[in-house]
Amino acid sequence: MWDALIRNLECRDILSDEERLAIQRLPARLRAIPAGGDITSEGESPGESSIIIEGFAARSKILAQGKRQLTAFHIAGDFVDLHSLLLRSMDHSVVALTDCAVANVSHGFIRQIDAAHPHLGRVLWLTTLVDAAIHRQWIVAMGRRSSAGQVAHIFCELFLRLKAVNLTAGFSYRLPITQEDLSDAMGLSVVHVNRTLRRLRMVGLMTWRDQIVTIHDLEQLKQIAEFDPEYLNLTPSPR
Amino acid sequence: MWDALIRNLECRDILSDEERLAIQRLPARLRAIPAGGDITSEGESPGESSIIIEGFAARSKILAQGKRQLTAFHIAGDFVDLHSLLLRSMDHSVVALTDCAVANVSHGFIRQIDAAHPHLGRVLWLTTLVDAAIHRQWIVAMGRRSSAGQVAHIFCELFLRLKAVNLTAGFSYRLPITQEDLSDAMGLSVVHVNRTLRRLRMVGLMTWRDQIVTIHDLEQLKQIAEFDPEYLNLTPSPR
DNA sequence: CGAGGTCTTGAAGACGATCAACAAACGTGG
DNA sequence: CCACGTTTGTTGATCGTCTTCAAGACCTCG
What we know:
Order of helices and strands of chain A: HHEEEEEEEHHHEEHHEEH
Helix content of chain A: 40-55%
Largest sheet of chain A: 4 strands, antiparallel
Shape of chain A: globular
Oligomer: homodimer
Number of helices of chain A: 8
Largest interface: A-B, 49 and 49 residues
Number of strands of chain A: 11
């Protein structure tokens, strides 16, 4: 159950046996969220935090006229609302894009971990900083990259993040979301995303068919995305 | 010197006398950064963090073909690279948009504060979470708001943040940056930003002349921006 | 006074949105 | 297992927003 989370953290720094054990002993309430459901809802002040065990989720904000903007994707092993520990209320919802399994841990236990294992606390904090770094990359992509560059960047990001938790096979990974989800993440229309995907497919960089993304030329994909993986902090180092 | 930072933190939670003192006793190196200069540079792994004492700064990423995207504005009292405490290297630069006064505090002292005053540590951590929340609002604005809504949102954000550190006068505040800076923040062309500002001025919502922003109708400005201040967490509450 | 930066406006064109229609895939119940 | 409705993906045509290029006004500062 905690495999993905632990793998996620171990990409950032070495964990001691006690730290790993502390995570595995976390009392959690397991929830199954059907696709389309809310993992946490905007405006709430939950007393617990959610970790995705399985499935794909996204931070989502709905605005007037029914427009939707996703601000992040989340996958197995992601602590999606650790920040609710300190923020007064959720400024956005976290929605399940596919059926999800989610573990809920009450804030009290997280504070205990932070107190008993300061280093582990720092690594958890780090994951929220990486979330912010990912936000910044999205802003850059939305503001100043071509639509192809923006799509390419997201596929690179997901490739590395999924690889970190062992959810890739070679240069392929399962991405069971819709083009509409992707368009809401990129701030573009579905139609335009569809055409951009077609272009990437035509030039042989990547395909996304039957929910499977396959990267045919990672180097060139990175290049048109101007992708530099450093911001993901996926190299273990003392924190 | 620490006034703005303390005011900034006290908007989030009550500080004890010891906590306030711990900040005021922080050994800092004061630096003057001229407009256009780097406060911290992309790729660096600084051994200290920077707090803005005076002036306006921004997180900046330059991409090929010389395009620039700003991902956040920072003002007096902002801890601009607290995250370098845990991240391996800066994924972006922080540039001075005006002449800035910056205080540098070595990471060691920050870790000491965090160890000796866990509550203060949490409030500092909180500020990085608010940064992330601001990033998310920018993503929403860039992706799904009209250019007028996006501009309006930024002016609302800056109004509340500057007000928190006492840098507003009524419904006015000094914003000594260029339209080009603003356009790089919004991911639009200068020309378009200029026209959008004109429209906002024409309908009497706000003006920005001689570096002074004046909001003439805050309620309506908030409305077209769909601005909800909650995400800034500017209400003190126990953290 | 000249040089460079900033602001402003015009004109032309590209990129992406919207509207619309259809195809393909999927799930469900008969 | 097929018929059906719904969701998702694909493509065309048209329209609007925003970009780009260009030029002039204004300002500050050497």
